[in-house]
Amino acid sequence: MFRPENAQSLVGIVVVLAICWALSEDRKRFPWKLALGALAVQAVLVLALFGLPALRAGLQGVGHAVEGLANSTQAGVAFVFGFLAGTPNQPYALTDPGSLFVFAFRVLPVILVVCALAALLWHWRILKWITQGFGFLFQRTMGLRGPPALATAATVFMGQVEGAIFIRSYLAGLTRSELFMLIAVGMACVSGSTLVAYATILKDVLPNAAAHVLTASIISAPAGVLLARIMVPRDPEAEVEADASSGADKVYDSSVDALIKGTSDGLSIVLNVGATLIVFVAIVAMVNGILGAFGPVGGAPISVERILGFVFAPLAWAMGIKWADASVAGSLLGVKLVLTEFTAFIRMGAIPIGEIDPRTRVIMTYALCGFANIASVGINVAGYSVLVPERRAEVMGMVWKAMLAGFLATVLTASVVGVMPERLFG
Q1: Fewer CB within 10 Å: C terminus or N terminus of the chain?
Q2: C-alpha dihedral over 117, 118, 121, 123, to 10 degrees?
Q3: 248: helix, coil or strand?
């Protein structure tokens, strides 16, 4: 049944498209067909994944697999770190069982295991076939050329910058529009390793958390392509024919080599995630300390979170969230943009059940599931400077705009989900 809040989410779709059109490099070339097609693809995927019994059962199976993966990871963590991993057998009397959930021991190790498994699945060609299948889908439905289509598909599973590695030999020949699109899509999606981590964070407060975060990353890719093409329209004359089949590929000598190299790559990600969280949370705490010196306003101290909540509350409402939750949701959007989506998911996971509407939690899961944040700007500049150094200045000139496109892409995805009947996710 279509309710007023579903119509409210239509406002979010219109607002996002209007913002991107206003920032377009050529407002006369709005891709109407792509816009209708991308929104249709998103809606159909959501309806299919949550509405068709077979696919819904498959998503539930993903949830069970994620839970099993997390439990298996904890066995390895407990072997190395003992009771620090949060095992039931603690050497001290517990006064707060919730304190056993330590991010460094419960979430970060999952990234290591998933990276190792992803490398193994790639060596076995399973993940490669899946990636090529999605690449074919993007090529046929959204008019992408072979190399960008493959990189877009790889981004859904491997993450920002990593997706571009698969077409490294073609990066120098991509048009400005295609390069911008790759960066924007990278910030609109997340990697497979972090998907499992997000599901672990949300599993106690969001039913089918793994299904939602997986769906969010997949359907945000078309949104990223659409908004990128609106802001930097396609230039058919500048495009040249290219064959993606001979692009750079990841090669492992054996299954053991894949596990070892995958673990090494995962360690790099873990260290970067942990270090980034420490630095950005510390900086915000320092800023909050300075703002607190001005005294309370409205009965509470001024903070970065309160300011961001005020700024982004209207956008949260436009996505279909009740005004009573708009301030909290707006704050989470701001935290995602400034402190990374990891921090935003942690904060949403800490909100008790019943304190915000279940619909708000579902919509915000999709709105937060993307790499668009300030830290990712540096990651993309550093990554593309290595992959295609001759275009570093061009990347520097478009990366902030690409971050905005990636941020709005997840907002668009959340709005599309908000249009869907709530019983679909029940």
Answers
A1: N
A2: -110
A3: coil
Helix (H/G/I), strand (E/B), else coil: 296: strand
Measured CA to CA, the distance from residue 105 to residue 100 in angstroms comes to: 9
Q: Determine phi and psi for 28, rounding to 5 degrees.
A: -75, -10
Which one, of 341, 347, 335, lies nearest residue 288 by Cα? 335
CA 259 to chain centre: 25
pLDDT band at 409 (very low <50, low <70, confident <90, very high): very high
Element (H, E) at 72: helix 53-81
Q: What is the dihedral of CA 32, 38, 43, 49, to 10 degrees?
A: 170
DSSP-assigned states of every residue in 110-146: HHHHHHHHHHHHHHTTHHHHHHHHHHHHHHHHH---H
* Interatomic CA distance for residues 236 and 3, integer angstroms: 42
Task: Give counts: helices (H), strands (E), the chain.
Answer: 18, 2
Amino acid found at 228 = A
**262, two tokens:** 């995958």
DSSP label at residue 352: P
Interacting residues of 31 by C-beta distance below 8 A, sequence separation 6+ = 226, 229, 230, 233, 234
**Phi-psi label, residue 208: left if phi above 0, alpha if psi -120 to 50, beta otherwise:** left
Buried-state track 166-181, b at ≥16 Cβ within 10 A, e below 16: bbbebbeebbbbbbbb
**pTM metric for this prediction:** 0.80
Identify which has the larger pLDDT, 286 or 382.
286
- Is the separation of the CB atoms in 12 and 418 below 8 Å? yes
Q: Residue 183's pLDDT band (boundaries 50, 70, 90)?
A: very high
DSSP state of 301: E
